């Protein structure tokens, strides 16, 4: 009952963003395929596969951006109301956060489903050049994982900080600065640790880092 | 005396200073309890601590028999809260907002909510953010009343409303109290309004409760005396607290706390002749009490 209400409120409040994300997710694979076809037809011999790979990276970026925007907007009402209304409801904080989180996930499943369907249809219909393969299943699994991870990240940041995007940029800048120091060998031990945490075989982030474009060699 | 709300040793720091320190508060069941205090005294923080909107660092709160620190959601279900700034999702049309709010309260009375909405003349199809300030204030009261709570906590509910809207608001509130025998804890700067409806008074200053008693006792407790002292008076030896002292020729005007009938005779022993005992209204009592504290602080500084 409560979850249904939160889902409904999310639809009423943020359906514009949801429809936009859904349309982008549904059209993404189609655009990637169109780019692949146009690259093959070009007389300058430009490699259509490379073009489509670039499109694939763009598609992955769009998936990430869509999930992040959805997560970042979760607490807009609470922020506007200085958290007074939300916290004064007869719900524990854990319950309130859980309901908001779950309602956001419910809606995020819609563009993801469209992405998966579109990727599957496009892959089946496409006539791919020799040596190029489509990975609709793996791509959709990666997109689902990336969406879940980035939505959760922005959900938490938006709950904690007034400007989640700025916080993320600052965090990113800090990571880059640290990375630069690490690369200069200032902290050689730290370098190994960071690499193991992000890229190591046991890293929880490894499936995200190893994302696969829809069409590739 | 059964209590609707009891808080003990509440403490909350904001930065390096205490917003609320070791505050205790007892609101008798069925009372209208007015919480007074200057700006920054910690009234809003106190009300938020009671409802666990802000976590206290220490202390305990019991609301209508429920341990509000352990079961804050259960306690909030029994309370109607009108915050200083409503902060509701104001993009919703009023009708939708009422349906949304109802979901969280099993005891929500939709017929009563509709009756109140019509009486308050709030259009159902207008977004809450497009309501006038008076209508928004009434809507906040409607949201607090429609689940028929046993305790109402109101934080400066009529602040910024015009006199007509303020009067309407107070009438609706008092009508609900008369019907349901609910308890009210209300903080306000509009003291003459509180004086009309409150039967208990709590005064806060610098995050602490400095006086808490029935309104009549509070008014009876603080008096202004017109006196003629025969010589030097030892203020420490007087049977009450001397809040302020103003010389006017041979006479002096004293504001005193802890006055009891019959003390005039006792003052003869201190070489003080009492010419007149003046009753003060709530605002004057409050001002005298706080002025004394401010002067004491300034002197200490």
In summary, what is this structure?
Chain A is mainly α and 217 residues long.
Write structural notes for this entry.
By secondary structure, chain A is mainly α. Chain A is built from nine helices and two strands; from the N terminus they run H-H-H-H-H-E-H-H-H-H-E. In chain A, strands 1-2 form a two-stranded antiparallel ribbon. The N and C termini of chain A lie far apart (about 50 Å). Chain B is α/β, with parallel strands linked by helices. In chain B, about 35% of the residues lie in helices and about 30% in strands. Chain B contains ten helices and 14 strands. Chain B has helices at about 45-50, 70-75, 95-100, 110-120, 135-145, 165-180, 190-195, 215-220, 265-270, 280-300, and strands at about 5-15, 15-30, 30-35, 60-65, 65, 80, 150-155, 185, 200-205, 210-215, 220-230, 240-250, 250-255, 270-280. In chain B, strands 6-7-8-3-9-10 form a six-stranded mixed β-sheet, with helices on both faces. A four-stranded antiparallel β-sheet of chain B has the order 2-1-4-5. In chain B, helix 4 runs antiparallel to helix 5 and helix 5 runs parallel beside helix 6 (about 165-180). Chain B is elongated. The two termini of chain B are about 40 Å apart. The model of chain B has no long low-confidence stretch (mean pLDDT about 90). The interface between A and B is medium-sized, with 20 and 22 residues.
Topology of this structure?
The complex is a heterodimer of chains A (217) and B (301).
Chain A: H1 2-41, H2 48-72, H3 76-80, H4 84-88, H5 93-125, E1 133-134, H6 136-160, H7 164-183, H8 188-199, H9 206-209, E2 215-216
Helix pairs in contact in A: 1-2, 1-5, 2-6, 5-6, 6-7
Chain B: E1 3-14, E2 17-28, E3 32-36, H1 43-50, E4 58-63, E5 66-67, H2 72-77, E6 79-82, H3 94-102, H4 110-120, H5 133-145, E7 151-155, H6 163-180, E8 183-187, H7 191-197, E9 200-205, E10 208-214, H8 215-221, E11 222-229, E12 241-248, E13 251-257, H9 263-268, E14 272-279, H10 282-300
Parallel strand pairs in B: 3-8, 3-9, 6-7, 7-8
Antiparallel strand pairs in B: 1-2, 1-4, 4-5, 9-10, 11-13, 11-14, 12-13
Helix pairs in contact in B: 4-5, 5-6
């Amino acid at each position: 009952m409560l979850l249904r209400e939160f889902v409904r409120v999310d639809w009423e409040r943020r359906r514009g963003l949801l429809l936009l994300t859904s349309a982008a997710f549904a059209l993404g694979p189609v655009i990637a395929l169109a780019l692949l076809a146009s690259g093959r037809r070009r007389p300058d011999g430009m490699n259509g596969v490379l073009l489509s790979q670039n499109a694939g990276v763009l598609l992955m970026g769009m998936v990430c951006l869509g999930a992040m925007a959805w997560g970042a907007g979760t607490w807009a009402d609470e922020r506007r109301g200085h958290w007074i209304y939300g916290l004064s409801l007869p719900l524990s904080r854990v319950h309130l956060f859980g309901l908001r989180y779950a309602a956001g996930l419910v809606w995020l499943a819609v563009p993801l489903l469209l992405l998966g369907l579109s990727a599957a249809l496009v892959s089946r219909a496409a006539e791919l050049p020799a040596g190029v393969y489509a990975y609709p299943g793996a791509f959709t699994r990666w997109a689902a994982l990336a969406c879940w991870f980035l939505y959760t990240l922005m959900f938490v940041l938006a709950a904690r900080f007034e400007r989640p995007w700025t916080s993320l940029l600052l965090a990113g800048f800090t990571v880059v600065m640290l990375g630069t120091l690490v690369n200069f060998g200032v902290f050689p031990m730290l370098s190994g640790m960071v690499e193991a945490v992000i890229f190591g075989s046991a890293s929880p982030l490894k499936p995200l880092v190893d994302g696969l474009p829809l069409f590739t060699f | 005396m059964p209590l609707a709300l009891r808080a003990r040793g509440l403490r909350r720091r904001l930065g390096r200073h205490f917003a609320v320190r070791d505050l205790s508060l007892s609101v008798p069941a069925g009372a209208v309890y007015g919480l007074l205090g200057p700006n920054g005294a910690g009234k809003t923080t106190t009300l938020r601590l009671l409802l666990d909107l802000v976590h206290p660092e220490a202390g305990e709160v019991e609301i209508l028999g429920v341990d509000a620190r352990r079961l804050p959601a259960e306690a909030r279900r029994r309370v109607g809260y009108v915050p200083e700034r409503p902060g509701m999702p104001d993009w919703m049309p009023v009708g939708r907002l009422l349906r949304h709010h109802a979901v969280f309260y099993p005891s929500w009375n939709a017929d009563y909510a509709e009756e109140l909405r019509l009486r308050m003349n709030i259009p159902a199809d207008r977004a809450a953010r497009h309501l006038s300030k008076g209508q928004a204030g009434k809507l906040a009261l409607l949201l607090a009343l429609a689940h028929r709570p046993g305790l109402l906590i109101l934080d400066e509910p009529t602040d910024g409303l015009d006199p007509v809207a303020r009067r309407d608001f107070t009438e609706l509130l008092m009508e609900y109290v008369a019907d349901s025998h609910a308890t009210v804890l209300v903080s306000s700067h509009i003291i003459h309004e509180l004086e009309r409806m409150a039967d208990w008074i709590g005064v806060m200053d610098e995050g602490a409760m400095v006086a808490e008693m029935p309104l009549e006792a509070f008014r009876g407790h603080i008096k202004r005396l017109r006196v003629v002292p025969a010589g030097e008076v030892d203020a420490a030896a007087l049977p009450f607290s001397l809040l302020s002292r103003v010389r006017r020729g041979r006479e002096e005007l004293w504001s005193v706390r802890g006055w009891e009938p019959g003390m005039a005779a006792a003052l003869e022993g201190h070489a003080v002749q009492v010419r007149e005992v003046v009753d003060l209204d709530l605002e004057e009592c409050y001002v005298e009490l706080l002025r004394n504290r401010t002067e004491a602080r300034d002197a200490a500084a």
